[in-house]
Structure formats: C-alpha cells, structure tokens
Specification:
The chain is an all-alpha fold. The chain has 13 helices and no strands. Helix content is 78%, strand content 0%.
Length: 296
C-alpha cells in the first residue's frame, strides 16, 4: 500500500501541473517571439497578466485598503518594477537570443542568487557546503558557455540577459520577504503585476501603433495568452496553494526539474539541438543548486 495519503497525492498532482505549466512557458515564449518583437511581447504579457490578476485579487481578498497606502506602495511598486517588469523584460529578451535549454539552466541559478543577496544583508548565513554547491553550479555555467558548437541557438549575450532576469526576481524575493509577512502573496503579486504593467505601458503606446497586429498568427496569440493567463496566474495560484500545505523544501525540490522538463519539451517542439556540453554543464548546475538548497 502506498504511504502517500490521498490528500498528499492531490498536492503532488497540482505541483506536477505547476512544473509542466512553467516549463511549457519557455516553449510558448519562443513561439510568441516568432510574431512579436521582444519588448512589445513583454509589455503585452505583463499588461494582460495585470488585467487578469485584478479580478482574482478582488474575488479572493476584496479591497485591502492598507495594502494600497503610500507606506506599502513605496516598497511594493519598486519591487514590482524589479521582480515583474525587470524579470520579464530580461527573460524574454534573453530567450530571443538563446535556447530554451540555456534559459532554463541559467534560471536555475535563482535560488543561489537569492542566497547571495540574503546573505549580503544578513537574512541568511553562508556555510562551507553552500559555497561548495554554488561553486559547482557556477562551474556548470562555465562549461555551458565553453561548449557552444556550430548550430547552437544559444549566445553568451542571451544567457547574460536571462541571468539579469533571474537576479531581478531574486531581489524581488529577498526584499519582498518582509512585506510578504504582512501581506498575503496574492496582494504582493497583484500590486507587482499592476505596477509592472504601468511601467511597461509606454512600450505598447510607442510600438503598438507601428506594429502590424493583423500579421500575428493564431498560434502567436495563443502563446501570448498562455504566458499571461496560465504561467503568470493559474500556475502561481496552484503553486501557493501547494506551498502553504507542503514543506517548501519538497516543493522547490520538484521544481528543480523545470530546466530538464523545459528542455525535453523544446527538443521535439522547437527542434533545439542537444550536445555533450549542454548535458554536462546542465547536470553540474542543477547538482550545485541542489547541494546548496539541501545544505544546513
């Protein structure tokens, strides 16, 4: 008889859906980039996500007047600019210049960046095991960059942009921690998405009138909708539903598979190449992140 209770099995099923939703987002973004320029895609995705999350916020929590005071907004708006606008901007621009596999692996450095920022302000403590884990992970990234071969769709500049996006989200995670202790995650993310949408709105106003929307394929529109509705809203709600009912270590442990799943999706769907450098570098990076995350 299985030792996993039915309720736990349901939670693992929801977590598996989150993993699949977020992994497929890499593929959807690549497809959308065939029709949309990167900056316009980021702005439209963020605006649509902000419009979709607002009714969910009011339905789940109603109007939290204290959260929309200047005292909170002066913290949350910059966080939104960094964690949503900055993160999505660098993610999409980076993905337009590199492969899904590289994007997933570089993004896997997120927990390490969170640790480094948190340690620099005294929230976390670095241990020898954590430092070793980080060294292994960054060694994997070095292997990844040294292993570029002809025909690869990955570039150093693209990987660097993705790293900047991961850094923005890491900063959002660390500096938003104190606010998240006072406000629910849905409130923090709603303000973040709305402020990010407002910040990126000038891109739509500037590029929109010059862009030929009628030329966008049906698949391009569906990809944009997926990025905004599924990966930004539905997956987020499922993730936090599981997170409050399971230990964070178990949740994050399964999500370490995201780069692997994203790569496995991209190989048949986008015909992305695989080489030994990708396999070795990716394995080292994921192993380093895992060692760091499991360190005491």
């Amino acid at each position: 008889m299985s030792s996993v209770r039915p309720s736990q099995g349901r939670l693992y099923l929801l977590l598996l859906l989150v993993l699949l939703f977020w992994s497929f987002n890499y593929v959807a973004a690549k497809v959308a980039l065939r029709d949309f320029p990167p900056l316009l895609l980021v702005a439209m995705r963020t605006a649509l996500a902000g419009a979709l999350i607002l009714p969910v916020y009011f339905w789940r929590q109603g109007w939290d007047s204290e959260a929309w005071t200047w005292r909170e907004l002066r913290i949350l708006v910059p966080l939104g600019a960094c964690g949503v606008a900055g993160n999505q901007l660098f993610f999409v621009v980076g993905l337009s210049r590199t492969s899904v596999a590289h994007t997933g692996i570089v993004n896997a450095l997120g927990p390490l960046l969170v640790l480094l920022i948190a340690a620099s302000i005294g929230q976390e403590r670095l241990t020898a095991r954590k430092v070793i884990g980080m060294a292994i992970a960054f060694g994997g990234i070095v292997v990844l960059q040294l292993a570029h071969v002809n025909g690869s769709r990955a570039t150093l500049l693209g990987d660097f942009y993705v790293l900047l996006g991961a850094l923005c989200f890491a900063a959002f995670t660390v500096f938003g921690k104190s606010v998240s202790l006072r406000r629910q995650g849905l409130t923090v993310n709603t303000i973040a998405y709305v402020s990010g949408a407002l910040l990126l709105a000038p891109i739509i106003l500037w590029d929109g009138p010059q862009f030929h929307f009628a030329a966008v394929s049906r698949l391009g529109w569906w990809s944009l909708l997926y990025m905004a509705a599924v990966s930004s809203l539905i997956a987020y709600l499922l993730y936090y539903h599981v997170l409050v009912r399971m230990p964070a270590s178990r949740v994050s442990g399964l999500l370490y598979l995201q780069p692997v799943v994203a790569t496995l999706m991209a190989i048949p769907l986008l015909a992305e190449p695989v080489n030994s450098g990708l396999l070795v570098g990716g394995s080292l990076t994921l192993a380093g992140v895992y060692v760091t995350g499991r360190s005491a």
